[in-house]
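Inverse folding, one chain.
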């Protein structure tokens, strides 16, 4: 019986290695850019009770080293001073546009409704999205991400990093999870089957929004203005990835496990609406992760411990190599030092999220 389990471990490890080799599509990808052109761009930010964060974000958006752009700031029925903060900046900068959204009974608390109004109000066709609670990594953020637009590439997927916190295992875990999610997102896009993006660093041409009737296919699902839109609009021909370090956005991570767990529940909840191919591939990866570590830990405690350790070692070495290169590209090198430990924690957490979402639906946009 134990011998058969060892055979299963070999098979599961082989599947995992195939996935890691597939992730090499991103790890070994070289940055390719089309001709640089000064596109007229609209930056779109949806804010609900984000007065303090906007005081930090807006000055950094205004300092972007880019000639032709406007900033569309959406006040989504805020109850704090969000509108007043935007109006103060608007008086001093003629490239800021304010869109006020009032609560609508049919779309109560729906971020997609607010974003739709912002997109319609935007002057320019090239739209770059970010969130109120993050900042660009550099003054060339806007230039870096728009350089990937071309006649064929009209959806650009960027990287949304989290700020580092010293001596915090939770921070390391959050950034490792973000790294692994980005590696998968970028690799699938390189393969020609894009499935997700982060709304805090995403760009697309307005035509792509109208081709799929905006968010209408999932308007009743409160989350998913990024990944479910990508599901509808992104193809192998129209999607590009942007991962230069100056193109990142940086967000402040959650500081408690409970708040992060709730955030991940909201993000994972939309995955049930993905295409079958994506659900199958993602599900296979995560299920083989669970099987691998469950079998590996069990077999290490048996007479086959040497064989189990050898299998673990080969699999982890390949993982270190591929994910290590990816981490270097995304400036997350320190997350791989404890890679196996972080991975085991994530496997347990993802299982917990799966079970929690089965029991009850998570809450959404503020």
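Residues assigned per position:
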């Amino acid at each position: 019986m134990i011998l058969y389990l060892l055979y299963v471990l070999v098979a599961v490890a082989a599947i995992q290695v195939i996935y890691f080799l597939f992730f090499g599509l991103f790890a070994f990808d070289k940055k390719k850019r089309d001709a640089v052109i000064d596109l007229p761009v609209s930056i779109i930010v949806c804010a609900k009770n984000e007065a303090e964060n906007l005081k930090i974000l807006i000055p950094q958006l205004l300092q972007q080293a880019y000639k032709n752009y406007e900033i569309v700031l959406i006040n989504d029925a805020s109850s704090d001073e969000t509108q007043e903060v935007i109006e103060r900046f608007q008086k001093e900068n003629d490239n800021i546009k304010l869109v006020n959204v009032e609560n609508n009974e049919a779309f109560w608390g729906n971020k997609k409704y607010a974003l739709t109004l912002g997109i319609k109000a935007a002057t320019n066709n090239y739209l770059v999205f970010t969130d109120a609670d993050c900042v660009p990594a550099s003054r060339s953020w806007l230039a870096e991400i728009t350089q990937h637009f071309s006649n064929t590439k009209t959806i650009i997927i960027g990287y949304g990093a989290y700020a580092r916190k010293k001596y915090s295992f939770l921070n390391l875990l959050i950034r490792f999870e973000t790294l692994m999610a980005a590696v998968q997102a970028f690799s699938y896009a390189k393969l020609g089957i894009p499935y997700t993006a982060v709304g805090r660093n995403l760009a697309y041409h307005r035509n792509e929004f109208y081709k799929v009737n905006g968010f209408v296919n999932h308007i009743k699902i409160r989350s998913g203005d990024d990944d479910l839109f990508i599901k509808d609009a992104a193809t192998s021909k129209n999607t590009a990835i942007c991962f230069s370090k100056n193109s990142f956005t940086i967000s402040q991570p959650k500081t408690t496990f409970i708040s992060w767990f709730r955030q991940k529940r909201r993000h994972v909840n939309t995955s049930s609406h993905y295409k079958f191919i994506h659900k199958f591939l993602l599900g296979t990866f995560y299920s083989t992760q669970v099987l691998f570590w469950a079998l590996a830990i069990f077999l290490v405690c048996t007479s086959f411990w040497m064989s189990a350790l050898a299998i673990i070692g080969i699999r982890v070495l390949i993982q270190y190599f591929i994910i290590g290169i990816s981490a270097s590209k995304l400036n997350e090198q320190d997350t791989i030092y404890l890679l196996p430990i972080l991975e085991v924690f994530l496997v347990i957490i993802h299982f917990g999220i799966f079970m929690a979402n089965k029991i009850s639906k998570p809450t959404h946009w503020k």
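The chain has two domains: 2-27+276-357, 41-254. Residues 2-27 form the longest helix (26 residues).
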